[in-house]
């Protein structure tokens, strides 16, 4: 239906007349085409992608392409080797989140320490940055020996830690002075990490 759309104030608009029992009128719908090749961008193919140097960026404007996200993050923190825009598995349309992989620990730490990034687009300009939390990681402290070989449910995003922990090791490490206020991150639906309260035994 793109051939029947019109540009209005730099927006692609589709007008449709609706005649139903309770609804009557002409409605305008903004159309935002998405090129599937804009979902991923490899900035430095010589660098292996390390999931432990990857961040989650929440609130990414849907028209923003992976190449644009990569360029912005590289300008701010350097060392970007990959950027991806998360898309709906069925619709293949952006979900409003992305991820960026860095080639070095210094750039990764600089990005997550910032916690927010300015991605100027229309009226929204502040985006959340968090570590990209994986769900198939063993505890970095005990390598699964204290939790029966189960994957670690917690990740500590504080730059003094940046590790995955089982419940036992989280309680042990984070009972130490200076670490008792760290909050564990867990992976939630849509790959978005979230903080969870930790109950001390």
From TrEMBL:
The keyword Heme does not apply. CDD domains: Bbox1, RRM2_CPEB2_like. Residues 53-130 form the RRM domain. GO terms for molecular function: mRNA 3'-UTR binding; mRNA regulatory element binding translation repressor activity; ribosome binding; translation factor activity, RNA binding. GO terms for biological process: negative regulation of cytoplasmic translation. Keywords: Repeat, RNA-binding. PROSITE patterns: RRM. Belongs to the RRM CPEB family. This is RRM domain-containing protein. It comes from Laticauda laticaudata. The lineage of its organism: Eukaryota, Metazoa, Chordata, Craniata, Vertebrata.
């Amino acid at each position: 239906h793109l051939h029947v759309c019109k540009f209005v104030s730099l927006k692609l608009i589709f007008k449709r007349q609706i005649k139903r029992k309770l609804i009557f009128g002409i409605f305008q719908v903004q159309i935002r085409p998405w090129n599937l090749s804009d979902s991923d961008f490899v900035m430095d193919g010589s660098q292996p992608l390390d999931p432990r140097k990857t961040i989650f960026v929440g609130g990414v404007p849907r028209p923003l392409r992976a190449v644009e996200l990569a360029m912005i993050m590289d300008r701010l923190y350097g060392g970007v080797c990959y950027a991806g825009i998360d898309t709906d598995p069925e619709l293949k349309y952006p979900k409003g989140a992305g991820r960026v992989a860095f080639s070095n620990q210094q750039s990764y730490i600089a990005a997550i320490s910032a916690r927010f990034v300015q991605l100027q687009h229309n009226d929204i300009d502040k985006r959340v940055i968090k570590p990209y939390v994986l769900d198939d990681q063993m505890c970095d402290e005990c390598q699964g020996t204290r939790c029966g070989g189960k994957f670690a449910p917690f990740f500590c995003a504080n730059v003094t830690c940046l590790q995955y922990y089982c419940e036992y090791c989280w309680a042990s490490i984070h009972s130490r002075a200076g670490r008792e206020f760290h909050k564990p991150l867990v992976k939630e639906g849509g790959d978005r990490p979230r903080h969870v309260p930790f109950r001390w035994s």
